[in-house]
Amino acid sequence: MTLSFIRTERQEQLFNQVAELADEFQSRSSTYDEEASFPVENIEALKKAGYTSLTVPSKYGGEDISLYELVLLQERLAQGDGSTALSIGWHLGIMMDIWEKQDWTTDKIAWIAKEVQNGALINRAVTEPKTGSPTRGGKPETLAKKVNDKWCITGRKTYTTMAPVLDYFIIIASIEGSDQLGEFVIDRDLSGVYIEETWDMISMRGTGSHDLVLDQVLVTEDNLVNVITPGGKTLPSGWLLHIPACYLGIAMAARNYALNFANEYSPNSIKGTIKELPNVQRLVGEIEVELMKARHLMYAVARKWDEMDQSGQAFLASELAAVKYVATNTAIAVVDKAMRIVGAASLQRKNPLQRYYRDVRAGLHNPPMDDMTISNLAKNAFHSLKNK
Q: What is the spatial distance between Cα 107 and Cα 97, in angstroms, rounded to a whole number?
């Protein structure tokens, strides 16, 4: 797409490096999808390139990239392999979130930042079988109870993306005898930590989002990084824009495939290629408009976030949610139109469009959910009407 959101020389340099990796990943993306295997080779390549430490603060040796830059790079990476991009996006975004919110002590932030800078991979494991997405407000059934000078943690977490290679799991547990929740960092090598390979989906098959099982895992007080009081106000999570960036990247890949197909396919029923057909031009034009709208919104909100302090960012929750809603639904529409251009061939197992079609559907089930976003936007609209 001729539309570029690169604004600086640094961004161009980073973008070009990621583009090379994305093109390499694209060559083996179908294999990971067919086998439902985790793209270890891709993650190792990202670590070697220094990509996994891009959101580490500069004071700890990282690049300290902005949200705008995170979105820019993740969108391009997803054009190569959506599962890889979504997986590493959680890791990158969570490091950014820890630094921005400062909910942990300075020492604990410094520790995790240095671990990530040295190659450690992290992700939060917060979803549970009975609570569903934590954005719905369910209380974790994972329980942390004090045993002498240690914490004993037992529970199960679902959809733990990147589980095969994570070094640390950041989990939320209910604290026994209290209404409060504890945020714990769990080392994968601890006794009682297991990965149960439950990930068997038709979408994002390579994310390795298996169940994390914690069976009476003993940790010290140092592993308790934050105590959360339910109902308290929290800063919106700007880093979650890595999700819409991923799905728009997949949509871009679908768009590019359809354009190349239309430019080259010449059935004997017409002169020239199908790019000259009015119905194909209409579909291509619609794809371009849809992507323009979604991408402009995403990059504008990311830039707005970067330019504000926390007091200003606190009012961006609705806009951040709207970006995800628009981006994921746009991605679904764009892939559908791309498949209409290519026709029945798009359904062949060897055709990447059928994978893109399955993968973008997963966006509907990443936070925040569509129904919550629409409901909150409606409430905000009526609230603003009252305050006129």
A: 16
pTM, to two decimals = 0.96
Closest CA to 299 of 357, 252, 238, 254: 238
Query: Across-strand partners of 155?
Result: 214
- 44-77 tens-digit pLDDT: 999 999 999 999 999 999 999 999 999 999 999 9
Burial of 319 (0-12, 13-18, 19+ CB in 10 A): middle
Residue 28: count other Cβ atoms within 10 Å of its Cβ. 16
124 close to 90: Cβ distance less than 8 angstroms: yes
- Mean pLDDT across 343-349: 97
User: For the stretch 31-67, what's the b/e string if a residue is b when 16 or more beta carbons lie within 10 angstroms of its beta carbon?
Assistant: ebbeebebbeebbebbbeeebbbbbbbeebebbbbbb
Residues 6+ apart with CB under 8 A from 27: none
Distance CA 177, CA 173 (A): 12
